[in-house]
Amino acid sequence: MRAGGGASPRPAPPPLPAATSATATLLAPASVAMPAPRLAHLRRLLLPLRSAAPHPLAANPGLQLPGPPVHPSLLLPRAMAGAAHAGVATGSAEYEEVLGCLGSLITQKVRADTGNRGNQWKLMTKYVQILELEEPIAQLKVIHVAGTKGKGSTCTFAESILRSCGFRTGLFTSPHLIDVRERFRLDGLDISEEKFIRYFWWCWNKLKDKTGDDVPMPAYFRFLALLAFKIFSDEQVDVAVLEVGLGGKYDATNVVRAPVVCGISSLGYDHMQILGNTLGEIAGEKAGILKKGVPAYTVPQPEEAMSVLMHRASELGVSLQVVQPLDPQKLEDQPLGLHGEHQYMNAGLAVALANTWLEKQGHLDRIHVKHSDTLPDQFIKGLSSACLQGRAQIVPDPQVNSENDKHGNSSLVFYLDGAHSPESMETCARWFAHVTNNDRIQEVSVEQPHTDRNSRKILLFNCMTVRDPQRLLPCLLDTCAQNDIHFEQALFVPNQSQYNKLGSLASPPSKHEQIDLSWQLSLQRVWESLPNSNKGLNGANSSKTSSVFESLPLAIQWLRETAQQNQSTQFQVLVTGSLHLVGDVLRLLEK
């Protein structure tokens, strides 16, 4: 093992709010010829729990319930299920070692701790010096974007536009959904495993040699930001598009002192325990990325937030320009690559950022405008081809639909959106209502054909314990109800990624460890208390409209069994509340 390559044990998840206890003990696995760490991971995914999964729709007449449990491989993507039976681990051993080292940087310290602000912010300068990145960072041509909602989508649009203009691009976003390498895109593709390993060890070993008691190893996100700077510098990207991780002023990406242009997407209430309890306080943190002499753009904001942004811009002598949502007519009938009406706001901001970057770098001659009332061809191509998983994404379940539907109709469809703030919940609900009420054909990873069958809508939900479900769930439910959308069931599950943050060797619970479902039970109680939650299909009252599952694979298994037993019905499952949950679902559905 490389020097400093050993990862410390993964800390236990933080305690959950007090609620009725609910635990389940994992069964011991059958013998499988594969490495113990890999086996521990697969145990978490493959095995049923000791207590039988509930059947939430049992009260619905005429709806057949599943019979005996399905084969364990149904809980996994096909490729992973095959690997499990063959005893083959995915990814190289060295990559798993890298993920273990990264996992050791995840601490139990609450992000709101003052150590993440104040003095310890100065450690970022020290880390940059240790890695000799001062000059490389200064040479990067950066687009820097902060915000509460839409900053990742804005960055994705801007990167895609400039890549379509012929530039070599680097994109740093967070969080990842399935693999940590998603955070680092080169020319629109996740960085290769080989390059990631090489750059990781270069940074890891240098930092291990020069850190200690006075200067500890950087925390997880700070290390990833430093790694991004190293990757983009050595890969000689023409433009580096950086999404702020949290806040702005004290974010690890804010070591960039002279970006080419800055953007602030829509602001709202999120991470309040860190950024402040008012929109003004939150806006003040986001405005921390603004720099003297650097052009900046934002979108229409609530008055309280806008006044703070404008005041800070004035102090810096920056002309902060407000960008309106993109006019769809400027796209020449091409759809945006990211779905949802709200994406026109993010696209408008991205167009302004990309255009200013081109202007400041002297590259406006690269773009071609056919008509004054449309965007340049490269901009249209970039906006229409942008791709970002987990945002207004539609994925028919490939297993159920390929095995049981001979006519191409999708009997189990997942609608995934990582909304996790009250405002984004409303946006998510409007999107879900739009795409399901209109029964439109959506082409995402696979085609969702038109169907005239009955549909039943189910919510699959979890949120982090720092969120307030009494704000999130009412926003979602009320907006759906206003658009004539009613969920027949709500399923609450813990995130798989709570135990599988990085790779297959991350430390899941042992086979004897109990699963604490108190948070999921508290979510269920909030749901059951809401006035619109007792209306199922066609607004019919139901005495029980929700269930808690011990694990996500069990919930997916139940959905698949139910869809297989009721092929005349299309089950439309909205997955939301957490990007981690969305990533976990995608991981299980991935072929």
UniProtKB/TrEMBL annotation:
It is an enzyme of class 6 (ligase). ATP binds at residues 391, 417. Gene3D superfamilies: Mur ligase, C-terminal domain, Mur-like, catalytic domain. The keyword Nucleotide-binding applies. It catalyses: (6S)-5,6,7,8-tetrahydrofolyl-(gamma-L-Glu)(n) + L-glutamate + ATP = (6S)-5,6,7,8-tetrahydrofolyl-(gamma-L-Glu)(n+1) + ADP + phosphate + H(+). One of its GO terms (biological process) is one-carbon metabolic process. Its EC number is 6.3.2.17. A monovalent cation. It comes from the Eukaryota. Keywords: ATP-binding, Ligase, Magnesium, Metal-binding, Nucleotide-binding, One-carbon metabolism. PANTHER family: FOLYLPOLYGLUTAMATE SYNTHASE, FOLYLPOLYGLUTAMATE SYNTHASE-RELATED. Catalyzes conversion of folates to polyglutamate derivatives allowing concentration of folate compounds in the cell and the intracellular retention of these cofactors, which are important substrates for most of the folate-dependent enzymes that are involved in one-carbon transfer reactions involved in purine, pyrimidine and amino acid synthesis. This is Folylpolyglutamate synthase. The lineage of its organism: Eukaryota, Viridiplantae, Streptophyta, Embryophyta, Tracheophyta.
